[in-house]
Design goal:
CATH topology: Alpha-Beta Plaits
Strand order of the largest sheet: 1-3-2-9-6-8-7-4
Low-confidence stretches: none
Number of strands: 9
Distance between the termini: 31 Å
Radius of gyration: 17 Å
Helix content: 10-25%
Length: 218
Amino acid sequence: MAAAIWMIIYDLDRTHSDRYLQWFDDVHIPEKLARPGYSWAAHYQITTNDDSANARYVALFGGTDSSVFYNPSPAQIKPRQTPETRTMMSYRSNSKMLILTEEWIVDGDSRSLETRSQINAERISLTLFNANENDENLGAWLVQDYLVNSAGSGVTRKYLASTGAARHVVVHEMGMEEVSHRSIVDGSSSDWSAQVSNYLSYPAGAPVEARRVWPGDS
């Protein structure tokens, strides 16, 4: 089975952030993890818009495969929410939801033979994009050019979305001191990268970086 993620990217009203984050950590995450097939969770705050009126977050829920998130589906879960959950959800805005299946994972400059399912890095960079019918070229570029140029720079994960505005997702895991490129095409100056940059689009927003807020440091 291929590892899967339910990803939610959203803005949060800063005036309610303390109450919301306590609920999210102490109530919402345990409720999700109690469901069959849910295997892990992580919560990140996006750091590339610190001056905006709202904070922005990325919630990740891992599953054994994508079928977990369709039985029940997010749309079927919503009417069953408790009054408290509905109140907390009202503090969110500009939400984008994707259901993702992992294609491959590379750790440093060598391809991992086994999936390391949980994302738990201190920081991540996140790129959600479409290839506009150039998917074969994109896949070849990612494996033959992008990964070669980013070798040794941490864990890189590639996902396909079955639900959501973007079809392709790349997550790069980083430590606190590691320097990253927000966009996947920033990591290479090759002619092939220039070609790829011409057809990529970002329907879910520009690439971002984020720091982990849950789980906290032990």
